[in-house]
Design brief:
Blueprint: E1 3-15, E2 18-24, E3 29-37, H1 50-62, E4 83-91, E5 94-102, E6 111-115, E7 118-119, H2 125-136, H3 140-146, E8 148-150, H4 163-173, H5 177-321, H6 334-378, H7 386-421, H8 430-464, H9 470-494, E9 498-503, E10 506-507, E11 513-514, E12 518-523, H10 535-556, E13 559-561, E14 563-567, H11 575-592, E15 594-598, E16 610-616, E17 622-625
Parallel strand pairs: 1-13, 3-15, 3-16, 8-14, 14-15
Antiparallel strand pairs: 1-2, 1-4, 4-5, 5-6, 6-7, 9-12, 10-11, 16-17
Length: 626
């Protein structure tokens, strides 16, 4: 069953040199695209947009023109906006439309895809491009080598591209990309298994660490147990000695401490009695002080009264001897004298009474004072040395208590130390160790299986699906086809003067084989390589290989494409070479429906079924004149 891609129509607006263009693609025969440049006198066929007319097909499919223009580069310079390309085509029984917009007033820079009149555009331009690639099924490089021949692709043509480029083209032609995917998947599997192995290594390391820790813990505990047994013997002897010392000294020390405490008690009783005597003496001293104060106070009052008594006696004498009153200074008469005299006498009597009262009170207080002194003399004598004696006894008692405490704490500490050394003999956790060993064995088995699986995937990645594996085998299948077809075309194009052979391996100067594409050219003229051939010969070789690749693409992949494009394929060919190419194109056109040939060679027009002339007017706008 063929995979049929039928291009039906392309329509553009403000695309490159065209304001508007609609080009029917299906069933057009062998068509020459000519040019008529009315905007310039010097160029009659060049610069009119011949290549641009069919570039719209490539741009519609891939978003890239034959000359490599993309994005806003395809917008018509005069318009500057509202650029779009619409490509109508069928894939088998499904009808598709691809619409690409640039600076469009409505659709902006969007890419749209329709299938059977239903829009299937994806969420982004990138995802829509991927959708288009799946629909077409041919990548850009393969399409340009198999469906288009153009001078724009000379550098990337099969004959001139790098070894990597040649392999990429053959990979697509031979559908070996699936092996690349398989190789990548195998590599990913190898990496995935490597990651799993690393995870298992980590698990094994942890289990081994845990097992070692279990063993180390047991050995450490066993060492402590043995050391404790040895230490127990020493401490047991020390404990026995400490106990005996404690028991021997305790009764002696307790007796001495008791005796000292009794003495201290007796002294404390004496000190208490002394204190009572001291308190009594202090009370008597306080009373004696109060009485002495009273005596001194009465003495002071008596002296003051006696002095006043003498003053009054002196005043009384003045009354007898002075004609004037010594009190008020007035003239003394009898009545005045008698009144003042009696006052002074009365006052003197009162003072005498006060003096007697003070004297009596002093005498009474002296009696009390003598009594207090007598009582004080009867109090016991104070012994001030008792406190010092008690302190000395307390120091001796404290020292004995400290000795007793030291013996007791030494004995108790030995008891605690001995108790701490009494350890149970450790038991190795064999069940847990067996569990670790079992898990390690399971992981080792799992790792072994993974390694076997990894080795298999590694063989797939590095051997089976590598360039030297199945792909090389497939290349060996398709290379003879390309060689045969290319030489068949060279027979027609060069009358058998040139042959070529494509090889997947090359030989180094040392004679070793390596995976590198090589193309050997045999030329009757003497040139032994593609580069040594003339320009015309190189053109014939390129055309022959391009035709061969087209045949491989169509036949090997059950693919049928209805439109082929040849841009300036006659350059460097003489008239016979041109006619030979036309003959080959006629043969291909009978199977492939439409072939567009872009050329400015006016002498070839009669050889084509149809001629499309691209006319560029004086304003620089291009259109089709059929």
């Amino acid at each position: 069953m063929y995979f049929l891609i039928k291009l039906k129509q392309v329509e553009v607006n403000n695309f490159l040199i065209f304001k508007h263009l609609k080009l029917n693609l299906d069933n057009q025969g062998l068509v020459m695209i000519d040019g008529d440049n009315q905007s310039a006198d010097s160029y009659t066929t060049n610069g009119v947009g011949k290549s641009s007319s069919v570039s719209a097909i490539v741009y519609g499919l891939y978003g890239l023109t034959i000359s490599g223009q993309k994005s806003d580069e395809v917008i018509n310079n005069q318009a500057g906006k509202n650029c779009w390309v619409k490509l109508y085509f069928d894939v088998n029984d499904d009808h598709y439309v691809i619409e690409r917009y640039r600076k469009d007033s409505k659709n902006h820079n969007k890419i749209k895809v329709f299938a059977n009149d239903q829009e299937i555009t994806d969420s982004s331009n990138a995802r829509t491009e991927a959708l288009i690639a799946r629909i077409i099924g041919i990548d850009f490089n393969t399409y340009t080598n198999a469906v288009i021949y153009s001078n724009y692709f000379v550098g990337s043509s099969f004959m001139r591209t790098t070894d990597k480029g040649k392999k990429e083209i053959l990979n697509t032609l031979a559908n070996t990309l699936v092996y690349d995917e398989a190789r990548d998947r195998a590599k990913n599997k190898v990496k995935e298994i490597t990651d799993k192995e690393a995870e298992i290594d980590n698990q094994q390391y942890k289990l081994k660490t845990d097992l070692d820790a279990l063993k180390d813990k047991y050995q450490y505990q066993l060492k402590l147990f043995r050391e404790s047994q040895d230490r127990q013997l020493v401490i047991q002897k020390e404990l026995k000695q400490a106990k005996q010392v404690y028991l021997d000294n305790k009764p002696i020390l307790v007796t001495k401490i008791s005796q000292l405490n009794n003495k201290i008690k007796s002294i404390n009783e004496q000190i208490n009695r002394n204190q009572q005597a001291v308190n009594k003496r202090n009370q008597l001293i306080n009373k004696l002080s109060v009485i002495n104060n009273k005596i001194n106070s009465n003495k002071q009052l008596g002296r003051h009264s006696f002095k006043e008594y003498q003053q009054q006696l002196s005043l009384l004498k003045e009354f007898k001897d002075s004609p004037n009153c010594p009190v008020c200074g007035a003239k003394l008469d009898e009545s005045h004298y008698q009144a003042e005299y009696h006052k002074i006498v009365s006052k003197i009597d009162n003072i005498k009474q006060d003096i007697v009262k003070y004297k009596n009170q002093i005498n009474h207080d002296k009696v009390d004072r003598d009594k207090i002194i007598a009582i004080g003399k009867q109090l016991p004598k104070i012994d001030n040395s008792l406190t010092s004696q008690r302190d000395q006894l307390n120091q001796k008692a404290n020292k004995l208590n400290q000795q007793l405490y030291q013996y007791e704490t030494d004995y108790q500490s030995k008891q605690k130390l001995y108790a701490s050394l009494v350890l149970d003999k450790p038991v190795y956790n064999q069940d847990l160790a067996d569990k670790y060993v079992s898990k390690l064995r399971q992981l080792k088995d799992k790792q072994s299986k993974l390694q076997d699986k990894q080795n298999k995937f590694n063989i797939l990645a590095t051997q089976v699906f590598s360039d030297t594996g199945i792909k090389n085998y497939v290349f060996e299948l398709i290379i003879p086809f390309i060689n045969q077809k290319a030489n068949d075309y060279l027979e027609r194009l060069t009358n058998g003067q040139i042959n070529l052979e494509i090889k997947t391996q090359s030989t180094t100067k040392a004679g070793n084989k390596r995976e590198k594409m090589s193309i050997q050219v045999t030329n009757a003229s003497g040139a032994n390589s593609y580069k040594a051939c003339s320009t015309g010969e190189q053109k014939r070789i390129e055309l022959a290989v391009s035709f061969a690749i087209q045949d491989l693409l169509l036949n090997q992949n059950n693919l049928k494409i209805n439109v082929f494009i040849y841009d300036e394929c006659f350059e460097g060919l003489d008239s016979i070479g041109c006619e030979n190419v036309i003959d080959i194109l006629r043969d291909k056109q009978s199977d492939n429906n439409t072939i567009y040939v872009i050329t400015h060679n006016q002498y070839l027009k009669p050889l084509f079924n149809k001629v499309l002339t691209i006319v560029k007017d004086k304003d620089g706008n291009a259109g089709i004149k059929s």
